[in-house]
Automatic annotation (TrEMBL):
Requisite cofactors: FAD
Keyword field contains Metal-binding: no
Similarity remark: Belongs to the flavin monoamine oxidase family.
Keywords: Oxidoreductase
Domain of life: Bacteria
Name of the featured protein: Flavin monoamine oxidase family protein
All residue ranges annotated as the Amine oxidase domain in the record: 16-447
InterPro entries associated with the record: Amino_oxidase, FAD/NAD-bd_sf, Flavin_amine_oxidase, Flavin_MAO
Length: 452
């Protein structure tokens, strides 16, 4: 049986695990990284599909994501801006298509004013929420016991305004129905990005991309770490006591260390058998977290035809199967790529269909946004993270009603020599690659301090 001894064993070679490994190695500690997949990168994955490079996983960087921007710079990677020139498109509940500019959807004047009022009100509450400790916010428990939709409905009697505001958190971020997560969970999402206003502004939240794809962050870190990273090594058991850990992975690989870092989504922690079992608090909190559900759709065309029509490629509708879409063309590529998203209950509906039926229904949304030319992409691909054995959803985990206030303070608490970190546990950058970097840095700092 292969056996490895190191100061730290890290489970997961996503951005969090590799960031922690890189920092600990630079500080002089020995590290072993075990990854279940046959690749590094976790929920970032850049691949070539039918001759086109696609960002299957996370890809964008916003201006406030300074930890990720620093990492990109440190690794010698370059970035470029997402295409955004031209008008956006909005389709209302009656199927009326409108081209517009600005951040507020082209709805009636009274509803537009109500949307702006709701956004402003939400941000007054967001200002009281510390993204690292949202459970300490004023009225945190009450805000965590009411769904985001019910909270919005308590603030406004305009159903169109409520539906449109809910879209920015429910469909675009947590990828769950707005009745399935709390107002506090939504406020955390906004606080993690600096404000709800930032989430509303697609030009802010989806600002830049990495040349060659976001997975290059992980690929470059892994290359620097060399043979410290072991692929195809799903961890099955973790034996621990106050003196250290012994981890067993497939292939009979055994790794002993003083400290273990589980750099995986919290929903995957239960895939490991612990001896002794984790304390009841950890057992309970992991049962109150779940992944969202989203289909990321890539449609590639001979040319970015929408640009010729004066469109940016940005499109929204709470009422269509694909609730949002963007120009996702690789810089320098003569072809045009649109990326669209189908989330939560609409994704449920789509997965009940055959692949052919699903493609047709989703492309119908793109036709409503961009016209008949959108019906016939030369490449069509669906990123289905819910079927990924080592992810099982997207984009990240969130609590059920009441869970954040009840368990949040324990999310990052170590159990003896076992530590936890992932973008799901981040404050700033929550659910984003930036949060993964921040959590990797934080874990390395804490673990380095313990190793002394």
């Amino acid at each position: 049986m292969p056996s490895i001894q190191s100061d730290v064993v890290i489970v997961g070679a996503g951005v969090t695990g590799l960031t922690a490994a890189s920092r600990l190695t630079a500080a002089g500690y020995s590290v072993t990284v075990l990854e279940a997949r046959d690749r590094v990168g976790g929920r970032t994955w850049t691949d070539e599909i039918d001759g086109v490079t696609l960002e299957i996983g996370g890809q964008w960087i916003s201006p406030d994501q300074t930890a990720l921007l620093e990492t990109v710079d440190e690794l010698g990677l370059t970035i470029y801006y997402r295409y955004r020139e031209g008008k956006s498109v909005y389709v209302d509940a009656d199927g009326l298509r409108t081209e517009y500019t600005g951040d507020i959807f082209p709805v009636g004047a009274a509803t537009a004013a109500e949307i702006e009022r709701l956004i402003a009100h939400i941000d007054t509450v967001v200002a009281t929420v510390d993204a690292d400790k949202p459970w300490e916010a004023p009225n945190a428990k009450a805000l965590d016991e009411i769904s985001f939709r019910a909270w919005l409905e308590s603030l406004s009697d305009d159903p169109v305004a409520v539906a449109n505001v809910a879209l920015f958190i429910a469909g675009a971020m947590l990828t769950k129905p707005a009745h399935a997560f709390s107002a506090l969970q939504a406020l955390l999402m906004a606080a993690s990005a600096g404000s709800f206003e930032h989430l509303v502004d697609a030009d802010f939240i989806l600002d830049k991309r990495v040349v060659g794809g976001m997975q290059k962050v992980s690929l470059t870190l892994a290359e620097q770490l060399g043979d410290r990273v072991h692929l195809n090594a799903p961890v099955r058991t973790l034996r621990w006591d106050e003196d250290g850990v012994v981890v067993t992975a497939d292939g009979g690989l055994e790794a002993s260390a003083r400290i273990a870092l589980l750099a995986v989504p919290p929903t995957l922690v239960s895939r490991i058998s612990f001896a002794p079992p984790l304390p009841r608090r950890q057992q309970q909190l992991h049962q109150h977290l779940s992944m969202g559900l989203v289909i990321k759709v890539h449609a590639v065309y001979e040319t970015p035809f929408w640009r010729e029509a004066g469109l940016s490629g940005t499109a929204f509708s709470p009422y269509l199967v694909a609730h949002e879409a963007y120009d996702n063309t690789i810089e320098g590529d003569s072809r045009g790529t649109l990326v669209a998203f189908v989330s939560d209950e609409r994704a449920d509906e789509m997965f009940r269909l055959t692949a052919t039926e699903r493609r047709q229904r989703i492309l119908e949304s793109l036709v409503q946004y961009y016209g008949p030319a959108a019906a016939n992409p030369v490449v069509y691909y669906e990123s289905d993270w819910a079927s990924e054995e080592w992810t099982r959803g997207a984009y990240a985990t969130s609590f059920d009603l009441g869970g954040l206030a009840r368990f949040g303070d324990d999310l990052r608490s170590p159990v003896g020599p076992v530590h936890f970190a992932s973008s799901d546990l981040a404050g700033l950058g929550y659910q984003h690659v930036d949060g993964a970097v921040r959590m990797g840095r934080r874990a390395a700092e804490i673990i380095g301090g313990l190793l002394g």
